[in-house]
Amino acid sequence: MGRRELRSPLGRAIGLGSAKEGVQHWWAQRVSAMALVLLGLWFVAALIAHAGADHAAVVHWLHAPVTAVLMVLLLAVVFYHAALGMQVVIEDYVHSEWLKLFSLLVMRLISFVLAAAGIFAVLRIAFGG
Amino acid sequence: MMRAALAPRFRARLPQMTQAERPLSPHLQVYKPQLTSVLSIGHRATGLALSVGTIFLVWWLAAAAAGGDAFATARWFFGSWLGLLLLFGWSFSFFFHLCNGIRHLCWDAGYGFDLRTTYATGWTVVAASGVLTVLSFVAGLLMRGQ
Known about the structure:
The complex is a heterodimer of chains A (129) and B (146). By secondary structure, chain A is mainly α. Chain A contains five helices and no strands. Chain A has a single domain, classed as Fumarate reductase/succinate dehydrogenase, transmembrane subunit (3 helical TM bundles of succinate and fumarate reductases, Up-down Bundle), CATH 1.20.1300. The longest helix of chain A is centred in the last third of the chain and has 31 residues, at 97-127. Chain A is elongated and about 60 Å long. In chain B, α3 crosses α5 (81-108). Chain B is elongated and about 75 Å long. Chain B has one domain: Fumarate reductase/succinate dehydrogenase, transmembrane subunit (3 helical TM bundles of succinate and fumarate reductases). The relative contact order of chain B is 0.09. Chain B has helices at residues 8-11, 14-19, 35-66, 68-79, 81-108, 115-145. Chain B is built from six helices and no strands. Classes of the chains: A mainly alpha (129), B mainly alpha (146). Chain A binds chain B through residues 30, 33-34, 37, 40-41, 44, 47-52, 54-55, 58-59, 62, 71, 75, 78-79, 82, 85-86, 89, 114, 117-118, 120-122, 124-125, 128, and chain B through 44, 47-48, 50-51, 54-55, 57-58, 61-62, 64-65, 67-68, 71-72, 75, 79, 91, 94, 98, 101-102, 104-105, 108, 136, 139-141, 143-145.
């Protein structure tokens, strides 16, 4: 907050700009990005360590509690961040209003389904015998 | 169009003005590609590529959960030339999106806006993502060979 505040006191109190929404999307994209710097590097390092690994080795790796928790976190944050990013791309390039709405709904549906399927797979291995 | 705001003599000429083939900014056909704009669109392209890659990640995890036969299929695919090509593309996309994403976070924090720094960090992103991709791919191939 500088000395010269351009927003009116009421505008600042409500926290909404001309877009009729706040800065939640902007913040969510940045915070999830910061989480993905760590989770992403861990995941890529783990993939390199398991390059060409057979079924038993991959299951053994995913069965470990630390791996399972980090994988669930990674999947949740990856699909959250991807959905936020794809939302901006759709909003920028799809100009027809109904097609934009349809694309956003389908994109979110696919993101939710994939996130649920991925997390279920990890939990199945983690809790499985 | 703020038609009413125009003086009458301009208002009369408006139809032919709007029908003229004016280039809209940024008009990609006449716009010279610059490092800044290429990296900006590259950030979106790699983000979309990684989003598509998540489908294959979920397939890989689901195959591991389903059992040995399903996993053998996924393992065969990712070891094929097409699988390796996709993995190489996703590796580059990951490192580019990571490096350029950190560049974006620095901008968001208010640093690195002057032209010199923007180009220096831009070329650093290109070099770092290239080197990291090659290093990680060589490391992966060496691990696979063991």
